[in-house]
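Re: your question about Exocyst complex component 1

S., sorry for the slow reply, the queue was backed up all week. Below is exactly what I fed in.
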Amino acid sequence: MMEMCEYAVSNAEGFAEQLSRELQVLDGANIQSIMASEKQVNILMQLLDEALGEVDTIEGKLSSYEEMLQSVKEQMDQISQSNRHIQISNSNNVKLLDEIQFLVNYMDLSKGHVRALQEGDLTSPKGIEACINASEALSQCMNVALRPGHEKLMAVTQQQLLFAELRDTFARRLTNHLNNVFVHQGHDQSSTLSQHTAELSLPKHSPLHRDLLRYSKLMEWLKNTHREKYEGLSRTYVDYMSRLYEREIKDFFEVAKIKMAGTAKEAKGKFATLPRKESALKQETESLHGSSGKLTGSTSSLNKLTVQGSNSRRSQSSSLLDMGNMSASDLDVADRTKFDKIFEQVLSELEPLCLAEQDFISKFFKLQQHPAVLPPLAQVSLAPSLPRSLAPSKDVVRLMMNKIFQSIETELNSLIALGDKVDSFNSLYMLVKMSHHVWTAENVDPASYLSTTLGNVLVTVKRNFDKCISAQIRQMEEVKISKKSKVGILLFVTGFEEFAELAETIFRNAERRGDLDKAYVKLIRAVFVNVEKVANESQKTPRDVVMMENFHHIFSTLSRLKISCLDAERREAKHKYTDHLQSYVINSLGQPLEKLNHFFEGVEARVAQGVREEEVSYQLAFNKQELRKVIKEYPGKEVKKGLDNLYKKVDKHLCEEESLLQVVWHSMQDEFIRQYKHFEDLIGRCYPGSGITMEFTIQDMLEYFSSIAQSH
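Result:
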């Protein structure tokens, strides 16, 4: 259209008029078309009227239907409400049934369980099993968690009363039965005590423990349901078993003491009649190594401190009884072996007894777990602030064991005191054995009764060991020497040797080696001090001889035994022995050539004062004539005679046991040769060209020494 009216932009008015004309043409055409379709319009109107009539008909039917539906709705509402009430009723019935089933299932005890609780057999295995099952069922019934409102039900209340009555009845029956068992056990064992104690063995309680452990579940039930009766049973058990164990242990230790006392009497009888055999130590050492690991043997006691002559020392040993001590050296091998076996047997019997009883108490009274119920006997021993129900089980077990075995520690200390009285050196053996048993017990359970008790006894043994060492030292300090006989090897020196030999055997691989090392140091220092003290007080034997012989013996002992903690003392003993050997040799050799010694001492004094060596011969007192005069007084025959007298004197000074005579004689020979060469050197320097020589040669002198040694 725009293309046909390209002039519209330039002639808008003309374009508008054209459009108006065309619109009028179209309106006229529309009116003519409408007038031509009036017939169809009339038909349409007629159809509409008919449709309205049909609508009215349908509306009438719908109204009737609505009236009908309204009646049905009311009926359905009534039915719905009725159904809702039915559902609520059904739900309540279900819940009620559930509650009834709950109460029946959890609060109903079978007739068999009731019968077992009221009259079940507590002696037969089947009866005990039935009682265990019934008690567990009763506990479940009594411990059921009731729902809110259950406690208001009369049936529930009646059941609870029935359960409480059954609980009390069964608890009373169980308590009475176990009380009777405990009482019977406490009296029944007495008849077997004599048989066991005669063999130095304790009766075994494993059959009783085995029988009682069948009731352990019932004891656990009693512990959880009736604590007063549980505590009463624990008190009864401890009371009766403590009496039983006290009798058994007392009889057991009495037999052990009788056996020890018998050993002591045998040894005491030997003291007054038999001297100490020189071969005893060798036999004892062999026994120590050949007795299947048992620590046996004997030793000389350091109590023997009286210094006597070497020939009479052993025969006079019986006089030591006046000191009031039973010397270990007077116990033979059989006596010591017997004591060792007795002490080991005592510990070996006590250890399994205590362990078995502690294990039984833990299992029977259910004390392996926390929290534990504290028996009445233990309440007074724990801190008031600690609740009974929270008392540690181990503490409860230990306190019960302390009550049951209250006599063990006392009896052990008494036995140890007797052993120490029989022989103070028994403390060495007891220290080692007790330490080993304590170490073993601590490895099993450091807090056990056995570990604690043996630890306490070990303190006593260690104290006795320290007293033994102190007593030896004290008696060394109180030593008195004989003025009529030579000293020789002091008894406390040989005593230390034998003590060390025994101790090294006993303490081999022992846990308490440190205690022995400390004792060694104390003893050896006391030996050193008192050897020197005796040497200073000796009148019959020269001081150097006493020091030389005894320190040589000490050095030999320490070298042989190789005691590492005494290495310094071993070197010191060697040094003292060497020094006093040299001192004795020098002092003794001044006597055979006494005038010659004095002459040359004067010559050396003049030289020391500034006189020239070649001018000494011009001194009036030291001229050649005086020298020849002195030399002529010592011809070979006189020298040999003087050496022979010297040998006899040395032989009188030295003791036979140490065998140092040849050592000293050889040292004197060396020293004599040294002096001879020294005299010749002085003659050559102070009297040159004089041609003066000794009346004997070195070869002569060697022959003198050799022939004298061979002749004796």
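The first helix runs from residue 12 to 36. The radius of gyration is 59 Å.

Happy to talk it through on Thursday.
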